[in-house]
Amino acid sequence: MWREIVFWLCAAGSVITGVAVFRVDSMARATFALLASFLFAAGTVLLVDLTYLGVLVILMMIMEMVIMVVFMLMYMMNPAGLMPMTMVHNQKGSLAIAIGTFAVLATGIYLIDWPTSSAPQPEDPTMALGEALMGPKMLMMIVLGLALFATIVATVVLATHRGRYDRYGDRLDRDRPDDPVRGGVGR
Amino acid sequence: MVETTAWGVLLLPVILGLFAVGAAAFDATLAARAAGVAAPRSAALAPLRSAAGLLVQQRRRTLAADTLLWRAAGMVLLVAAVLASLVTPLGQWAVGDLSAGVVWFNAMEIVAWAAVWLAGWGANSAFGLVGGYRFVAQGLAYELPHMFVLTTAALGAGSLRVADIVAAQQDLWFVVWMPVAFAVYLLSVLAMAFAGPFNHAVSSDVAGGVLAELSGVDRLVFVAGRWVLLVSGAAMAVPLFLGGGSGPLLPDWLWTLVKTALVLAALVWAGRRVPTIRMERFEEISWMVLIPATLLQALFVSLVVI
Amino acid sequence: MDGMQLAGGVPMAGRADDRDGLTLDQLHVPLGPLLPLWPPGLVVRTKLQGDVIQQAAVEVLGIGDARGDAFWLRPGRPLKARWLDASAALLAIAGWADAAAVARRLRDQVLTGTPQAEIAGPIRRWGRQVRRSRTLPWLLTGVGQVPDKPSTPRALAGDALTRLYRWVDSLADPKTSVAPPDVADGTPWAVDVLPSVLEGCELATARLIVASLDLDTDMLTVCEAHHG
After folding, report:
1. Membrane-spanning residues where (chain B) (predicted)?
2. For A70, nearest residue in chain B (alpha carbons)
3. Is pLDDT of A53 > 50?
4. C226 exposed, middle or buried (CB, 10 Å; 0-12, 13-18, 19+)?
5. For an interface test with B, which of C35, C49, C159, C202 has the most B Cβ atoms less than 10 Å from its Cβ?
6. Left (φ > 0), alpha (ψ -120 to 50) or beta: where does B97 sit?
7. What's the rounded Cα separation, in Å, for the pair B178 and B164?
8. CA A112 to chain centre
9. d(CA A161, CA A153)
10. Where are the domains of chain B?
C-alpha cells in the first residue's frame, strides 16, 4: 500500500518539476527543477529494491546538475531569469512529439502482456538485473565502458587549449611550467 | 549484526546536534586560547550565544536575490547532513542498514555541492557567487580521491553495506592496513564540510564567500548544517576504518561515541593549525598526488583481498 | 545594448575577451575603501571575468585632507608593532586565524609598552611557529611577486612569502627593537605598482597581495603634506 502511495508521489513530483523546468525563467531554477525531477525518478527505482541503482542515480544526478548549472549560466542568456524569457522553442512541434511519445508508451504499457513470476526475490536485485540485461556480454560491456572513458579523456586532451609545449617550451626543457596561475605541485 | 531501529530516527538528529554543538564549542575554545582570552571556558558558550543572536536577527535583503533557492540552501544542507548519518551504526543499531550504505553516505554528502552553490548563487552578490564556484571546484578536487577511499574500504570487506564493513574489521581495523585511505578520508571530510583549511568557499578574502550575505535564521541553519556535515563525516570514519564499536570494557555504542568524538576533535584541532588552502593549489595536488595514491591503495587492498 | 534593460535596477554585464580566449561577461567589483584587514581608504576598482582580475585601477580616498599625521609615525609606535600588525593581517587573510590572533596580541603588548625582555620570548616562539609551517610557503610562494627593479624598495622585494619571512626574521632580530619608525616607506611605490601586480590574478590572491605589501594609507597623506 505505502509503496503505491510513494510511487504516485514520486511520479507526480517528477512530472510537476519536469514541467517547471520549462516554466521558470532562471537557468539556475531550471537546472535544479530538473534535478528534483531526476531525484523523484530515483525514488521509483528505490521502490523496486534496486538500492544501489537508485542511490547511484541520486549521487550522479546531483553531481551532474551542479556541474551543468555552471555551463548553463556560462552559455545561456539571462542566467538569473531577471528578464522575462521563455525556455520553449518550436512549441507546436515539440508538443506533438511529446504527446505522440506519451501515447505510444502508454498504449504499450496496457497492450503488452507483462510476465508475472512467483519466484522469490533475488538476494541482490541489482546483480540479478545486471545479469539479466547483459548476460554473457558483461565482460564486453565492461571493456566498452573503459573504452568510452578513454575516449572522453582523449577528446579533452586533443581539445585542450594549452598543451605541454605551451607549458614547458618547445624543447620541453622548462623546469616549471609557464601557467597563468601557479599550481600546487610546485614544479 | 547491525539491527535497524525506527526510534533512531528521533534520536539521530539529537546526537548529531549535540556533537555539532560540542565541536563548535571546542573550536571556539581553541580560538579563544590562541587570542589569549583570559577565560577560555566562557568562550565555549560563544557558539550558543551567536546562535541565539542569529535567531532574533532580522534577515538581510539583497537586490534581486533568488530567495527561494537561497533559503532552500541551508535547509538542504542540514537535512542532507543528517541523512548522511542514516547508515552510520551506533554500536549495533543503525537507523537504516542499506545494502549500498556507503554509496548513500556519498550521495548525501554530495548534496553539499548543490547547497553551497545555491547559497552563493541566491544572494546575487559577487562574493557569494565566487564562494559558491570555489566550492564546486573544491568538490571536483576532493570527490574523486574520496570515492576511491570509500571504494577501498568497501573492497576490503567485499560489500557496500556498512555493517559488513564493520564485521570485516573484527580482527584488524582497516586503518592499520589502509593508512593512506584513512588519511585521505579525513582530508576529504574536512573538504566536504568546507571546514578547517578547506574553508576557501567561506574564507575572509571574499568577505565570507557564500556566508557573506546570509543572515538571521538562514545563516544559523546553514552553519549548523555545515557542523552536522562535519560530524557525519567524522562519525562515518569509525565504521569505515576504526572498527565500529569494537573495543574493550565499554559497550560498543559508547565506543562509537568516543571514537567519533576523538576523530571530530582531531579534525577541528588540525583544521585550525593550517592556513586556508586555495583551490588553484589544491586542485593539482589532488589530481596529481591524491588520486594516484588512493588508486595504489585500492590496488594494494584488492591484491590482499584476492 | 544590454545597458538599456535593467534587472532589479542594475544594468546587465557587458562582455569582453578574457585571458583564455573566451568572450565572457565582465563584472565591475570595487574592493575597499573599508574592509576588514584592508588599508583604509584604498579602493581597487577591478574588472572581473569569472574570478580573474582583468584590469585593476587603484585610488586612495582622503589624500586631499592631508593632516600630515600617521598612526605609525607617532611616538611610541615602534617598527616592531607595525611588522606584527602587517603579519597579523596577512596571516588572517591567508586563513590562519590562530597565528594571526597571537600576532595581534603581541602587537598590542608592544604598543602598551611591555618590556622587551618580557616579550622577546613570545615573539620568537610565534616566529618559529610561522617559519615552521610547511603549508604557508606552499600557499604563498609566487603570490604578489613584484618586478625586480632598482627602484623596488628593499623591504617589499620578492613575493608575499619573502615579505612575511622578512618581517618575522626582523622581529626576531634584537637590533630592530630600537629602530625608529621609518619615514622612507614603500607605500607610494606599492600603490603605483599594485595595478600591474593585480592584473591576471585570481580574486583569491588579490587581498593576499594587498596585505603582503603592507600599504599604510596614512603614509600617503604624510608624503602629500611633505611635498606640499
Report:
1. 6-26, 68-90, 110-136, 174-199, 220-241, 253-272, 284-305
2. B133
3. yes
4. exposed
5. C202
6. beta
7. 17
8. 28
9. 14
10. 3-305
> What pLDDT, on the 0 to 100 scale, is given for residue C5?
52
Please give the Cα distance from B153 to B101 (Å, whole number). Answer: 12
Tell me the C-alpha distance between C179 and B206, whole Å.
Answer: 36
Radius of gyration of chain B (CA): 19
**What is the spatial distance between Cα B91 and Cα B260, in angstroms, rounded to a whole number?**
11
- Please, are residues A124 and A65 in contact by the beta-carbon 8 Å criterion? no
Stated pTM of the model: 0.86
What residue has cell string 587581498?
C207
Chain C residue closest to A78 (CA)? C12
Of B98, B113, B289, the CB nearest to A63: B113
Can you read off the three cell numbers belonging to residue B71? 533559503
Mutating which of C203, C210, C212 best tests the B interface, going by the most B Cβ atoms within 10 A?
C203
Q: Which chain A residues are closer than 8 Å to B114 by Cβ?
A: 32, 35, 62, 65-66
C-alpha cell at B219: 545563516
Condensed to tens digits (0 to 9), the pLDDT of residues B251-268 reads 888 888 888 999 999 999
E strand spans, chain C? 6-7, 10-11, 14-17, 23-31, 42-49, 52-60
Residue A182, φ and ψ in degrees, nearest 5: -70, 135
Choose among B30, B34, B199: nearest Cβ to C95: B199
Instruction: Report yes or no: C212 and C90 within 8 Å, Cβ to Cβ.
Output: yes
**What is the C-alpha to C-alpha distance for residues C105 and C7, in angstroms, rounded to an integer?**
47
Q: What is the mean pLDDT of residues C149-175?
A: 81
Considering only CB atoms, C21 lies closest to which of A161, A184, A186, namely A161
The single-letter code of the amino acid at B51 is A
Instruction: Identify the chains in contact with C, defined as 3+ C-beta pairs within 8 A.
Output: A, B
Chain B hits for A80, CB-CB cut-off 8 Å, are 64, 66, 124
B123-181 tens-digit pLDDT: 877 788 888 888 888 888 898 999 999 999 998 888 888 888 888 888 888 888 888 88
Cβ contact C105:B286 at 8 Å: no
Per DSSP, the three-state class of A187 is coil
Residues paired with residue C27 on neighbouring β-strands, in sequence order = C48
Domain boundaries, chain C: 2-60, 71-226
What residues of chain B lie within 8 A of the CB of A62, using their CB? 107, 110-111, 113-114
Residue A102, CA distances (Å) to A97, B60, C31, C115 in order: 8, 46, 54, 85
Nearest CB to C10 within list B63, B272, B273: B63
CA-to-CA dists, residue B236 to A138, B26, B153, B242, angstroms: 33, 20, 11, 9
Cβ separation of B35 and C101 shorter than 8 Å?
Answer: yes
Give CA–CA dist C39/C219, Å, rounded.
11
